[in-house]
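Data availability (excerpt). The following record was deposited with the supplementary files.
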Amino acid sequence: MADDIVREFLTESNENLDTLDRELVLLEKDPHNHNILGSVFRSIHTIKGTCGFLGFTKLEKVAHGGESLLSSLRDGKLVLSTEIASGLMSMVDAVRRMLTEIQATGQDGETDYRDLIESLTRLQQPTLDSVPEARTPPSKLGVGSSEGTEEKTGRPAPVKKALAKESKGTDAPTATDSETPEKGSPVPAAEPRNYLPVRGKIGGALVDQGKITQSDLARALQKQEQGDRRRLGEILVELGAVSADDVTAVHQTIEGAKAWEAGTGTIRVDVGLLDRVMNLVGELVLARNQVLQFTSSVESATLAATSQRLNLITTELQEGVMKTRMQPIGNIWSKFPRTVRDVAMNCGKQVRIEMIGQETELDKTIIEAIKDPLTHLVRNSVDHGIERPEVRVAAGKPAEGCLTLRAYHEGGQVNIEIIDDGAGLDHERIRRKAVERGLMSAAKAAQLSERETVNLILLPGFSTAEKVTNVSGRGVGMDVVKTNLEKIGGTVDVQSEAGTGTTVKMKIPLTLAIVPGLVVLCADKRFVIPQVSLIELVRIDGDPARTGIEMVHGVPVYRLRGRLLPLAYLDRELRIEKKEKSADADNAVNMVVLQADGRQFGLIVDEIKDTEEIVVKPLGRRLKSIKTFAGATIMGDGKVALILDVLGLAQRAGIISGVHDRAVAGSDSENQEKVSDKQTFLVFAGPDDARMALPLGTLARLEEFPASQMEKAGMQWVIQYRGRILPLIRLNVVLEERRRRRRHAAPAAPPADSGSIQVLVCNHEEHTVGLVVEQILDIVEDRVEVKSPATRPGVLYAAVIENRVTELLDLTAILQAAESSREHEEEHARVGN
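Predicted structure:
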C-alpha cells in the first residue's frame, strides 16, 4: 500500500513540475498575474505537504523554501524578478532530481541542497528591484489570494482559506460581476426578490444541510447586490447565520465532490499494459487477415458474413486501442518554454516561443522517440539561429526573436516544423567548414546546390560553431537527430534563407505498431514496402519497357514526366537468383516509386500485389545489422514476409550517397529548382470529352471494378470495397444533373452490367467516396500558372497543364451536387408512387 502511495505521489508530482516549468515562464513575463501565481503556489504547497507526510525531509525542506518565497510574492511583499524566477526554477530542478532518486532508491538522496535553501531564503529579503510600488489589496489578488492570511476580522487562516477559494460561483451575481457604485454615491435599495438556493454552490449546500434558512441566504445575496464585495460565506458569518467552522466544512465537501467528479472521467493505465493490449490486437489483426484470405477461397455466404463482421470489429478495436496510445504533442512541447528561456539567458538573447497545433496526436512510442531530437533542434535554433538583440536591431528586426513550433497531419504522416526568424545559414561558411573537416573536396563542395549545402549540417561531426560551449559546438547532435528519426521511418529536411530564418521540417509516421504496406513479389518471394515511403506505382509496357530505361554513367535511370529517376533492381540488391522468363511471358516492367531522405527512386520488382495492414515484428539480434530490412510480418497464409527498409535499400543501391547519387542528381540539378513548386495531378477524361484533373494528394487509391459489382442501396449506388460499403458518385450523371435538372425528370439509368468502371477513391472530410470517371489518363507534374474562371458548376477553374486546357474539379461541390441529385431522385420516386 505504501508503495502505491509513493508511486501516485511521484506521478502527480512530476506532472505538477511540468506545469510549474510552463507557468513560471509565463509568470516571469507577467509578474502581476495572480491567477498563475496562485496556481504555482498551490502546486508547491501540494508537493511539500505530501512529501512531509511520506517522510522525505530533504525534499520537504527544499519545497518549503520555494513555498515561503512564493508566499511573499503572493502577499505582495515582493515582485517577481529574473533572479527570483531563476531561483524558483532551480528549486523545481532540485525537486525533480530528488523525485528521480525516490523512484530509483526509495529515498530522497544524500544531497541536502543547503546552498539552494539559503539562496531561496536570501531572495525573500526585499531589495530595491523586488519591492512593489504599491501593495495590492488582498481582496484583489484573485481566487485563493487570501490563503494563509488573516484580516481584521480575526478569522483563523483555515477559515479564510475556505472563504477565499469560494470564487465568483455564488448563488446569485455578485457586485464584482457588475459595475461597483462609486465611493460616496448612494446605494439603491434592492427590490424584494425570491432567492433560490443553487445546487453545488456554498449557499445552496448550507440550506440543504439545514445550517441556514432561505431568508438568511436572501439577506446575504441582497448585500452582495448592494455592493458588498465580500464572499458569501463571510457575509453569512458576520450576520450570525452560520459559524465559520460550518462554512469551512461545507466548502471542503463541495471541493471534494468536484475533485471526485473530475477524477471519474479519466483513469490511469500502465504503459506496459497498453503495450500488451496493442500486441494482442496485432495478433488479432494477423488472425483476421488469415480468416479473410481463407474466406475468399471458400464459397459460403455464412462464412463471408461472419468474416466481414470479424473484419469490422477488429478494425474498430484496432482504432480504439490506437486512440488510447495517442497523445497530443503538446505534452512534450510544454517543456520547451523553459528550455528556450534558459538557453536564451545563457546566450544573452531575447527569444519568445510560439506553438501551433499542440493538439496534434501521435503514438506514445513516437512521442518518446522524437522527444530528444526535438529538444536538440529547439536548443540549436536558439543558440545558432537567432541573433543577439543588438545584431537584430541593427538589421532592422525586433530585439526579441521568435521560435515557432508547428505540427499538423498531412498524407498519413505528422509534419513538425521548427521555425526561427534568425539570420539563416551561411552557405559559403557551411561549404568551407565541410572542406576543413575533410567531409568533401573543395571541387565537390562548389558543385552543391543550396538545398544540398544546407543539409550538410546533418552529417556526423559537422558544426559551424567557432568555439565549444555548454550548448553546442562539438559536432554532435544533428546527425543523431537524423539517425533517430530514420529509425522510426521519419525524415528531416532543412531550409534556410539568409537574413530571414531557418526551418527544420520533420516528417514522422503516426504509429509504428500496425502500418499499411504494399506487398510485392521478387523471384516468387514476398516482401512488404511501408506505404509511408510510397509515391506511386508505374507499369511500363511494350517498347518503352525495352527502350525507356537508359544508362547515365553506368546508372540505370528512367525519365518520368521529364525528370530522371534513378532505378534499383530488388533482385540485384538482395542477390536473389531469378528464373529466366519464357518467350511468351509478360515482359512489362513494374516500378515502385519510393522516397528516401527526400530523394525519389524507382524500385523494379517482378509483380505488385495489393496493400495490406501489417503488424511489424522486430528482427532478431543477429539480423538487426542488416540495413535492408526493417522487420518482418506474418501474412494471411501464416507465412513470414520481410519488411524492406527503404532508406537502407537506397543506401545499399548507392542512390542517396556516393558517385551513384552525383551522377543522377548532377545531370538533373538544374531541373530540381524548377520543379520544387510544381503540383502533381491525376488527369482523367470527364463528360463531353473534357480533360479534367484532381490534386493527387486528395486521392487514396485508383481502382477498376466490374460494372456488375455495382449495387443500389436506396437511391445510392455503392460497391463492396475492402470490407466496407463504398458510395459511388458518377461524374457524368452529377455534372449533367447540375446543368439540366428538371423537377420531374426520370432518375439516372443504371450502368451497363458488362465492362468495367474506373473509380477514384477519395478521402474528403473523414468520408471515403468513389468517383466514377470515364477514363484515367495520366499522373502529371506541372505548375498551374494560367487560370481562367470555371466553365461550369462543379469546376474550380480551367488551367493549362502540360500545354493542354484542363478543368480542375471542385470535389466539395461535386459531393454536394451528388447529395442534391440523390434527394431529387427520392422526390421523383415519391411523386411516381
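Summary of structural features: The first strand starts at residue 326 and ends at 328.
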